[in-house]
Design goal:
It is a single chain. It contains eleven helices and ten strands. The chain has 287 residues and is of the alpha/beta class. A hairpin with a 2-residue loop joins strand 4 and strand 5. Helix 3 packs across helix 4, helix 3 runs parallel beside helix 5 and helix 4 packs across helix 5. It is globular, with a radius of gyration of 21 Å.
């Protein structure tokens, strides 16, 4: 059992009842516990952040329910199950997670969350070292996190989440503020975690190039409601993406131009420029 929204709505209250703002409305959605890589897209204000904050009960529904690993969460706070075990299983990487660093060494910062979730010092340390190795930062564990580069700080913050080993990872614009090399490095890391450990990844992003390369399922929010939920290739094969205010990935624009000018029949199952170039080489070798 993963995460299931059932007719879930959330309103932000105003001073007066009539001032309430509908953030998301009547959401029905199921996310598998394992092996999904989902991109959550939509314009600013479409309801993406509100939606994901229900996934580990940072927000409670105004109406409807959400089931998180068989835990039923409703608007009735006193009747809900303990939230700490739920939050251990659904980890959040917020925008600019490095802003949350505060300990005197990198190791202590990574250990903080595992200890909060009940690990003893030695166990928390071992898990933190493993997470640091995964991110390639094991050599800076005794340094102050505030003497690191921006990219290193972000890796430290991410290691702190990986160290307590959540089942589902929610990534809120994880590449924002990074240069192309740093962005690719971070996304390749998350994709490796997804593939090697079967973890479900939920990626919030406005970058359709990243979305198209890594996600297999796309959910699009529009005006607080789910406007699309399905395969990424199908989304861009027709003009539906335009009505959803999405941009077409660069690789697909390149495919369109090549097909038009050279009369090729390259399909949309090429997810970045390197993939496309490899396919073109094969075509040319057979001509």
């Amino acid at each position: 059992m993963g995460i299931k929204f059932e007719s879930l709505s959330h309103f932000y209250s105003g001073v007066k009842k009539e001032d309430s703002v509908v953030a998301i409305k009547d959401i029905n959605l199921y996310i598998e516990e394992k092996n999904e890589f989902i991109a959550l897209c939509g314009q600013t204000g479409s309801g993406k952040s509100t939606l994901v904050q229900h996934m580990n009960a940072l927000l409670l529904p105004t109406s409807g329910i959400i089931k998180i690993f068989d835990n039923v969460i409703t608007s009735k706070k006193k009747k809900n199950p303990p939230l700490k075990p739920i939050r251990k299983r659904v980890g959040f990487v917020f925008q600019f997670p490095e802003y949350q660093l505060f300990e005197e060494t990198v190791l202590k910062d990574i250990m903080f969350a595992p200890k909060i979730f009940g690990n003893k010092d030695l166990e928390a340390k071992n898990k933190s070292v493993e997470a640091a190795k995964l991110l390639g930062i094991e050599e800076i564990l005794e340094k102050s996190p505030f003497n690191l580069s921006g990219g290193q700080m972000r890796k430290v913050a991410i290691a702190g989440i990986l160290a307590y080993d959540p089942d589902i990872l929610v990534l809120d614009e994880p590449t924002r503020g990074l240069d192309p090399k740093g962005a690719k490095e971070i996304m390749e890391l998350f994709y490796k975690i997804h593939k090697d450990f079967g973890k479900t990844i939920i990626l919030i992003s406005h970058d359709m190039n990243i979305v198209y390369k890594y996600a297999s399922r796309i959910i699009v929010m529009q005006n607080g409601q789910k406007a699309y939920d399905g395969d990424k290739v199908e989304l861009f094969k027709n003009d539906n993406y335009k009505s959803l205010a999405l941009t077409k990935p660069e690789v697909l624009n390149s495919i369109d131009r090549i097909n038009s000018k050279l009369n090729y029949q390259i399909d949309y199952n090429h997810f970045d420029i390197d993939d496309l170039l490899s396919s073109l080489r094969k075509v040319n070798n057979h001509e």
